[in-house]
Design goal:
Blueprint: E1 13-20, H1 33-46, E2 49-59, E3 71-78, E4 81-89, H2 90-109, E5 115-119, H3 128-136, E6 140-144, H4 146-154, E7 158-163, H5 170-185, H6 211-231, H7 241-264, H8 268-280, H9 285-309, H10 314-358, H11 360-376, H12 380-395, H13 399-421, H14 427-442, H15 450-455, H16 457-477, H17 490-493, H18 497-535
Parallel strand pairs: 1-2, 1-5, 5-6, 6-7
Antiparallel strand pairs: 2-3, 3-4
Helix pairs in contact: 1-5, 2-3, 5-9, 6-7, 6-12, 7-8, 7-9, 8-9, 8-10, 9-10, 10-11, 10-12, 11-13, 11-16, 13-14, 13-16, 13-18, 16-18
Length: about 550
């Protein structure tokens, strides 16, 4: 092969991703080739690099058990999108991959590529041509896959980052590839971690801390707790009491795992770190799990960067970052902060109980009154939902949870039902019906009543008054429960079933009747001018 001509000056390094869905890799992200490549592209962009070519052979199972007749697909880069360009048996797709391999080899020889990323590649098979071309051109390469990396090294490929795949994820592998290439070229690189919603462009993990996001992510575990509490009240199932105690004791682990995963932005690695921290933080309650998980998530992000910067293989980097960071976050809570965090949780519970005990009617009415302004102003998920979950984490049910169900869900149900029975216009019935069904069947989507509240200030006044009245009944009966459950289930998780039913009926019937009357009045006012116009006599000519 003739000497490689000098590449034209460029500020963007060009990378080709070649390989397969792998054997062991298949269970570590290789089963989603598009996500795998997109992670490499995302990290490469953060280092001023660009993936300009892709050649990835994928099958629906581990390559270890694939045969020549196994259905396969070839993924390439088409107009900036990772797409399937060939399908058939593995033998047929390999032929198409070899043709692309020869084309990539010519691109390397012509100076069109600056590096390779090998993802469980086949340097002696379908990736042989581009590997040989990279060896002759002294291109740097990064890759994972024990067998393939060993074969590439034997051919003389200049590997700047190499590892197996065990214990890695698509994100950590991509970070490893790009970190190795950035180190080789002396390029500044900060990994971009987190999802599209939580990513901070590669900045500090502290900026990914969101109490709202963590609590909403943990919500299913709290609902499971409420359901278990309800089931335990069924005669003959009282033996589930220890199960309830075990679940409530394990809630800090759930909160810690969600927190660490979100803050670290590293998927499974952060999740494992959070679980380790959560186990050590259980004595600190829900707040302890929250603090331990956040600390673990912060440490794992920094520790992963540090290990990769010091040439740890990605498998070892994952193990060290996930395990050590979990221990750090958990031990801080276990040895130092557990009494404080536990006191905070107990203080929240005690404060709410003291407020209700001082004047239950006033407490319920005020709590109900602020519900609608809170959810409309974006305060609900940041302040009220955490209070509900903190209460539930302490005792399995919540005063604010009962007010939430009555003053938001049931009031919304009443407003939407009124617009099903007697809408102001025919088009409003279908809109209201879908919202009412979700409110009743799932205990959520209170926003279904927004179109009617925003269209008429009187309806908004009805919502406020009804929610305050419903909250007052909650306070009067002393019912505690939770929202996010079907309306027929909520009373059975409450501390007072009759009181909860009464509160829910008031919360639904009052706005239903009031909005029904407002709609009827509006319809009559609209018909009156038309009737008056029709009764005017036209003078004779």
């Amino acid at each position: 092969m003739p000497p490689r001509p000098a590449a034209a000056p460029t500020t963007t390094r060009r990378i080709a991703v070649v390989g397969s869905s792998g054997g062991n890799l298949y269970s570590h992200g290789g089963d989603d080739p598009v996500a795998l490549v997109e992670q490499v592209r995302r990290q490469a962009a953060a280092a001023g690099m660009e993936v300009t070519a892709v050649q990835l052979v994928a099958v629906g199972t581990s390559m270890d058990g694939a045969g020549q007749d196994t259905p396969a697909r070839l993924y390439t880069l088409q107009d900036g999108t990772v797409a399937v360009t060939a399908t058939g048996t593995l033998a047929e797709v390999n032929e198409a991959a070899r043709a692309l391999d020869a084309e990539l080899a010519r691109t390397v020889a012509g100076g069109g590529l600056d590096a390779l990323v090998l993802v469980s590649a086949d340097p002696e098979g379908v990736n042989a041509a581009v590997t040989r071309a990279a060896v002759e051109a002294s291109l740097p390469a990064a890759g994972t896959g024990g067998t393939s990396i060993a074969a590439a090294q034997a051919l003389g490929l200049r590997l700047v980052a190499a590892s197996g795949t065990t214990g890695s994820t698509s994100t950590t592998r991509a970070v490893s590839y790009v970190a190795g290439l950035a180190r080789h070229w002396g390029v500044r690189y900060r990994p971009v971690l987190g999802t599209a919603e939580t990513s901070d462009g590669g900045g500090s993990p502290w900026r990914r801390i969101s109490l709202r996001g963590i609590m909403v992510g943990s919500l299913p575990a709290f609902i499971a707790l409420a359901l278990l509490l309800a089931i335990g009240k069924i005669p003959g199932l009282e033996a589930l009491g220890p199960v309830f105690d075990a679940l409530i004791a394990g809630l800090p682990v759930v909160v810690a795992a969600v927190a660490a995963r979100r803050v670290s932005g590293l998927g499974e690695v952060g999740l494992v770190a959070g679980a380790v921290a959560g186990v050590l933080s259980t004595e600190g309650g829900i707040v302890g799990g929250l603090v331990g998980g956040i600390l673990a998530g912060v440490v794992v992000a920094y520790l992963l960067r540090w290990t990769l910067a010091h040439r740890f293989p990605v498998t070892t980097a994952n193990i060290v970052a996930g395990g050590v960071s979990g221990l750090v976050g958990g031990l801080v809570v276990f040895l130092l902060l557990a009494p404080v965090t536990n006191a905070v949780g107990e203080g929240v519970k005690g404060g709410i109980e003291a407020l209700v005990a001082f004047n239950p009617l006033l407490a319920g009415a005020v709590a109900g009154l602020v519900m609608w302004p809170a959810i409309m102003g974006g305060v609900y998920h940041a302040a009220i939902l955490p209070l509900v979950l903190l209460e539930m984490g302490e005792k399995g049910h919540s005063f604010f949870g009962a007010v939430d169900m009555v003053s938001l869900v049931m009031v919304s149900l009443g407003i939407t039902l009124a617009n099903v029975v007697r809408p102001r216009t025919s088009g409003e019935r279908a809109l209201a019906a879908s919202g009412a069904a979700v409110n009743f069947g799932f205990g959520t989507f209170v926003e279904a009543s927004y179109p009617f509240i925003f269209a008429d200030r009187k309806v908004f006044a009805v919502a406020l008054g009804s929610s305050a009245l419903g909250g007052l009944v909650v306070g009067a009966t002393g019912a505690e429960a939770t929202a996010y459950l079907p309306a027929v289930v909520a009373p059975f998780v409450a501390t007072d079933t009759v009181g909860m039913v009464l509160s829910m009926v008031v919360g639904c019937v009052v706005p239903f009747l009031a909005v029904l009357a407002l709609n009827e009045r509006a319809r009559r006012a609209e018909r009156a001018p038309r009737a008056a116009g029709a009764s005017v006599e036209v003078p004779a000519a």
